[in-house]
Amino acid sequence: MVRRRQTHTGSAAVALCAAAGLMATSGCGGGGDGTTVDGRGANDPTQAVQRAAAVLARAGSAKARTSMEMATGGTRVTINGEGVYDFRRGRGRLRVLLPQDPAGEVPHRPITELLAPGALYMKNRGAGVPADKWVRIETASMADGNLVTGGATDPLAAAQLLGGARDVRYLGRSEVDGAVVRHYRGTAELRRAALALPARDRAPFLAAAKGFSSERVPFDVYLDEDGRVRRMRHQFAYDAGRERPVAVASTTYLYDFGAPAEVRLPRSEDIYWGKIAE
Prior knowledge:
The structure is a single chain. The protein has 278 residues and is α+β, with helices and mostly antiparallel strands. It has a single domain (14-264), classed as outer membrane lipoprotein receptor (LolB), chain A. It has helices at 14-24, 45-50, 52-59, 155-161, 190-195, 203-211; strands at residues 61-72, 75-86, 91-97, 111-116, 119-123, 134-138, 165-176, 179-189, 216-224, 229-238, 246-255. It has an 11-stranded antiparallel β-sheet with strand order 6-5-4-3-2-1-11-10-9-8-7. A hairpin with a 4-residue loop joins strand 2 and strand 3. The chain is globular and about 50 Å long. The model is unreliable at 1-42 (pLDDT under 50).
């Protein structure tokens, strides 16, 4: 028997919808990237930032921490995540913790998210999904390409977004988690980032270009001596079906490069194909 694959587009915004519901109730020398203190060198700041995803692919894997802050109507909530990512295969696993209910009565169970090319898998989704089942969503079907909906930006997608960087400035050296880093600031364009990718990988970014209030995404990124991302922060303006856009700041930390990051995707029989409650 052939099982029909069903996507859950409208209700895919597990973390974002949960959060929305809560809202309603300095160095002098050059370095490995060839950039001097004033941002000039063999590779200019824009080039250093645009190749971030390629550098991560060469690094192989890393541990990741994520933080997503959302603000609307004077209310701010934060969603935190932690896990590992295999940049060569484009697969990651995050444990995402939703904010506590305003009344502080029942804490949300952590959601396990598996990130893969073109798909997001979630466990402990709630909303009528059995506890032992996964939900699978096609990222190209999501209005934001899953840059904010899952409550954590896919670390590889966040780095790929930097491929659309423009007007990048080098702001000097600093430190992230004990590593000496170079701080860059600029704006990434979603369509520009999409065109920098192979055709098969463009759909999520093209969807996001339509779903966000602006195609331009301000960012800050911190690269270590090997050009690897240690910290990146993107600022999105997401419509989310509201009259006023939701301001979303997504921050990703990467560390412990080379850490084991085996991510096994669910079997078809482990995926819930039924209706999800709103």
